[in-house]
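Hello Y.,

Per our agreement to keep a running log of every chain we model this quarter, I'm adding this entry. I've kept the format consistent with earlier entries: sequence first, then predicted structure.
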Amino acid sequence: NVQVNVWVQNRGCKVYDHTADNGIVTFHWANAGTELVWPSSWDGTSFFELGLVKGDEIEQVDITENIDIAHERVRVSANWSLPDPSDYEDFFEGVDFTHFCLLARINSDNDLLNEVTVEPYPLYTNVKHNNNIVWKNFTIIDKFDGITGQTFTDDVVLGGSVIVGNNSTANANFKLQFQVPTNETGKPITEEAEVRLTLSDSLWQRWVNGGKQGYEIEEFNASRQQILLTADSAYISNIALDSSMHTGLYVSVNFLTNERSAKELFTLRALQILDDSTQRVLGGETYIIKPDPYRAHFDADAGDDQDVLIGNAYSQNAKTIADSAIYNWYNSSGVKVFSGATMTDSATSTSTETYKLEVIAKEDGYKDYDEVTITTTLGRITSVAPNPINTGTLAIGYKVSSTATSPKIRIVNISTSAFTEHTISTGTGTLNIDISAYASGAHTILLICNSTTVDDELLVVQ
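Predicted structure for the entry above:
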């Protein structure tokens, strides 16, 4: 059990007399959600599909002290049998649930609750405008391992979940919008971190069925049902939810080391909006993100670009960082092709591919990226020396794939187009040429394999 405390302060014009005024504080809890309604989300009458309680009354406690009209306040406490977050794992289809909401309501014979009881905003309006009601949210973090049931080891997903639902009696379409408060200074969280949504199976399918509509978003990893928020005020929309349907959403944050400023507090609001002509806000969730201001910086380093001969195996070595980290390599299409600090592969065809290295610190999910280009070819001219040259022997270094046919070096006079050709072997070698037979001026050295020029260099004869 845990103790829930409420401070009660007298803001009226007379002393509160507990014997005459008969004040009672009623405590309630509810699972975090973007559309909580009163009273069914808070009194135990609303249940999930699995028969789990969505919320309930905790306790009714009498105010047993007099309260002066000054700034005096008294504490009223209730004992709460905390729900076990693991009970809700199956409902969220692998999305962890550790977030709860608390609501306290004071009613008194001489200070009755004056509440709005009709739509559109009964709970929101009452909490905002009624000083007899208070609402507080919190997240239980025991061991912050990310999404419950996570089986992959090539990513770090840390954040918090929230319920998305339709509490109305009719099916409806909804929008989920994510925005930074207008009064927040500094860069928004989407510029200093990767903010991702992991949708539950049912929510993902509803979004897909609606045409994957949204704004300022990218599919980050469709196989894991992840969406990246690319800017403030991003949203996903046209999500059809059946009446009384509830499902899960997980919001995670990975700070980017090369984008971090000195800002120490970020806010992100998740709003559930009725996706019709009214665009009515039904409710939401606020995430407060506090990065470690003393977090050491690190840089991803994918190593130097490489030229690789067709038929050869190669390794690309990332520079490892001091943190225990994950290293992922992606091709230019964004497909992950390798995990580990050293990417190994074999060159099978002529190509130029730019790979992105992703480095993720295991402890807190901080990350950085770097790129490297791997060019695969049948051959390369590795050196021309001396250049310029006026007399003596010219040395042309080369590497030629073992799969190349009829490799040769051709030296072409740019002015006259006259040329000489020299047959070479595959592998690594040097062609030595007496330069005395070549006219002064500019020449082009061509490396030819399989009847195709695969590399060239400029030569100046003086």
